[in-house]
């Protein structure tokens, strides 16, 4: 699972919050990053961690959960 975060406000503070919680960030163009966490295996666990950080419904960022598409 890929998780992309687009920062709408306070990118430096939000990135520091994520890093302190153990997220690894890979910067992308356009004030966005792809993130991963060693303890996060699915969307439910990612949402739980973001919720605990107060980021799940924050107006300062947009979280995009990208699921792998199955080939038919």
Short characterization:
The protein has 72 residues and is an alpha+beta fold. The protein has helices at residues 11-20, 43-52; strands spanning 2-7, 24-28, 32-36, 61-66.
Overall description:
With about 70 residues, this protein is of the alpha+beta class. It has one domain (about 1-65): Alpha-Beta Plaits (2-Layer Sandwich), CATH 3.30.70. The protein contains 2 helices and 4 strands. It has a 4-stranded antiparallel sheet with strand order 2-3-1-4, with helices on one face. The two termini are about 20 Å apart.
CATH topology: Alpha-Beta Plaits
Number of strands: 4
* Reported CATH architecture: 2-Layer Sandwich
The tally of domains stands at 1
What characterizes the major β-sheet?
4 strands, antiparallel
**Helix share of residues?**
25-40%
Which tags fit this structure?
72 residues, alpha+beta, Alpha-Beta Plaits
What's the helix and strand layout?
Layout lengths: L1 E6 L3 H10 L3 E5 L3 E5 L6 H10 L8 E6 L6
Antiparallel strand pairs: 1-3, 1-4, 2-3
């Amino acid at each position: 699972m890929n998780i992309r975060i687009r920062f709408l406000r306070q990118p430096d503070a939000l990135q520091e919050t994520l890093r302190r919680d153990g997220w690894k960030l890979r910067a992308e163009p356009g004030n966005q990053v792809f993130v991963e966490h060693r303890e996060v295996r699915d969307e439910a666990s990612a949402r739980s961690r973001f919720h605990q950080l107060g980021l799940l419904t924050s107006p300062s960022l947009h979280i995009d959960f990208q699921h792998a598409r199955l080939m038919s």
